[in-house]
Amino acid sequence: MLNRIIKRGAPKLPKADANEPPAVVVGHVSRAAAGCDTSSVPSIEALPLFRDVPAGERQSLFIRKLRLCAVVFDFSDMITLRCAREREVKRRNLAELIDFVQSSSGRLAEPVQEELVRTIAANIFRCPPPVAHENTGSEAAAADPEEENIFLDPAWPHLQLVYELLLRYVVSSDTDAKVAKRFIDHAFVLRVLDLFDSGDPREREYLKTILHRIYGKFMVHRPFIRKAISNIFYRFIFETERHSGIGELLEILGSIINGFALPMKEEHKLFLVRVLIPLHKTKPAGVYHHQLAYCTTQFVEKDCKLAVTVIRGLLKYWPVTNCQKELLFLGELEEVLETTQPSEFQQCMVPLFKQISRCLNSSHFQLFGARKFNIYIVPQVTSQTLPLNE
């Protein structure tokens, strides 16, 4: 899981200069510009390549290309046929911007970085179509919460390049975090987190990688990011039970938890009790349970005394009528018990065995597998806990 993260943000947007031409937006992708005329297609000039201009003029050309790429096209209707040439010009310029940032062609000046973040914001912070779990009055709103609702954004050919540009900017060794934090600030991070509810798994994968890199590079943002993610989870657990990106956020947290220093702060233990354990009780828990189980076991591996907290939490939210979810809980319980010490096991073994006995008496054929759990896992702990003559 962590390897996938390693393989692979808008600040409060500064007010535009009165002498600066506004970015052109096509169609309804950016609804903030709903008053623009979509009947006319903007003309996009072809700019020279970086290699064709002197080194001293490249950052000026970089800004011109950024302003060109601030044009947002509507990919959802027939207007795309009329914008084919302009869309291709933008795609080529985005690819060239990525190569420029990735090639370490020198540190970008502060005005260039500001324009870069503004262009990225114009493209990724948009009003996406309503996902199935929103209250739209349609039948889709009543979709099964345990099923993932996938929406493939037609604007992905441009969005992917914009996300790649942001990623390359964040991970670049030429990007000074002390300067970049003025543009990638708390407002930027919040809007990035809002995008995790996207129905497009490709977008969520990029967002996961980018947020993880932001967390690693901008140490000043770390407490804020953890708190903002917690707030998303609180709303999901206690209000909506609807969000597309819980699994990706948990993957990021798995990496963060793995890096916690010991002894563990009380703040982190509270996160386990107030967020991770209650995440087990939601209806769509099966969608993200693999990532959730990884996070909880990370806590137990860091501090074996937390095993009692996790086991009692699992027993508290143990499903009553959902056999598939019971199987997931048994699997997680097995992983936790593998790292549980005998002294902690003694504190919760009575309610644990009562729950296992209920699973053994279940009429569901899959829960019959609890016998394997009972025979192979529990004795490994009890043999160190109880005297042989008992």
UniProtKB/TrEMBL annotation:
<dbReference type="GO" id="GO:0007165">
    <property type="term" value="P:signal transduction"/>
</dbReference>
<dbReference type="Pfam" id="PF01603">
    <property type="entry name" value="B56"/>
</dbReference>
<dbReference type="InterPro" id="IPR011989">
    <property type="entry name" value="ARM-like"/>
</dbReference>
<dbReference type="GO" id="GO:0019888">
    <property type="term" value="F:protein phosphatase regulator activity"/>
</dbReference>
<comment type="similarity">
    <text>Belongs to the phosphatase 2A regulatory subunit.</text>
</comment>
<dbReference type="InterPro" id="IPR002554">
    <property type="entry name" value="PP2A_B56"/>
</dbReference>
<protein>
    <recommendedName>
        <fullName>Serine/threonine protein phosphatase 2A regulatory subunit</fullName>
    </recommendedName>
</protein>
<dbReference type="InterPro" id="IPR016024">
    <property type="entry name" value="ARM-type_fold"/>
</dbReference>
<comment type="function">
    <text>The B regulatory subunit might modulate substrate selectivity and catalytic activity, and also might direct the localization of the catalytic enzyme to a particular subcellular compartment.</text>
</comment>
<dbReference type="GO" id="GO:0000159">
    <property type="term" value="C:protein phosphatase type 2A complex"/>
</dbReference>
